[in-house]
């Protein structure tokens, strides 16, 4: 459909819209007033990763269109565990771990959103503040009566888990009830009218929309993004070496930059629309480049994505390191680095320590394939002991795109 509000036009043009509970109603609302909208994030780790980035960018686009982003941290629901797409019960974290994770995650949001007290300034809230105060009997009486087990069993997050004969605890079964109640609470207390999230959250979002209508006769809306996949069909958010974390403490800026620089040619335009603020006409020009020229577009993508997440200085340093490493054959200062004692380090262990591989077993396979080079010399023995004299620096490479430094202590 053709949207009239600047919010839905922006989201549509950039490829964020997959499903909307009532597109016409939301469009009309966004055209006439500021819409507070939220996305929920559980605090299972100290950093979110690239797989969460489309939801973060949704909140950024919302603010750019003149509306109010609400970041909901799941201090309460993290204690339960979202069963969506999972085959295992979530590991339980302590209260201290959850609070520390939320504090760490906030630092990433502060780069993408403007926080404050203004009508369109972002705010961060924690659902433990209200979920932690509700008694079990009260929750059953007030909220549980609006959910049928028949309906809950029909959702993919439950049905697929049961079909695979994977255990699902009663604790996890309650997750959708709590998420629905979050929407209702935010609607009542903060005037939130829209919940956004990934396509796998559609059932949970619809539950919240229906709960608000049944309990309060309040009209609220839901919007989901499409599943973001790479051109090879794999899910966005992982690299060969594991998750692509947003926080610097979890992943160096150079490695983050390299993730974007190494993307498939076919993904350049899509990623620019979703994950950068580049104008659409400029993106159209860049994604039309062919041959080796598309690499220039990839550098722009890497710079823009890194600038948003890590800052201007980090983006410039990462590009300079890449230029020196790949073009000049030098040792860029921003390359991932490990310190090596006088005892040395085994080749396979060095690959894993630098993040080239997820395990020593994978490192052994890569070395056997002839993909690992030490100071540009191909290596074939995973057990080779690398000696690095104090003050000396040696370069380890996996293929043409992964490089790291071994510094002697």
From TrEMBL:
GO terms for molecular function: ATP binding; protein homodimerization activity; RNA binding; tyrosine-tRNA ligase activity. A motif ('KMSKS' region) lies at residues 235-239. It catalyses: tRNA(Tyr) + L-tyrosine + ATP = L-tyrosyl-tRNA(Tyr) + AMP + diphosphate + H(+). Its EC number is 6.1.1.1. Keywords: Aminoacyl-tRNA synthetase, ATP-binding, Cytoplasm, Ligase, Nucleotide-binding, Protein biosynthesis, RNA-binding. L-tyrosine binds at residues 38, 175, 179. The keyword Membrane does not apply. NCBIfam families: tyrS (TIGR00234). Belongs to the class-I aminoacyl-tRNA synthetase family. TyrS type 1 subfamily. This is Tyrosine--tRNA ligase. It comes from Novosphingobium aureum.
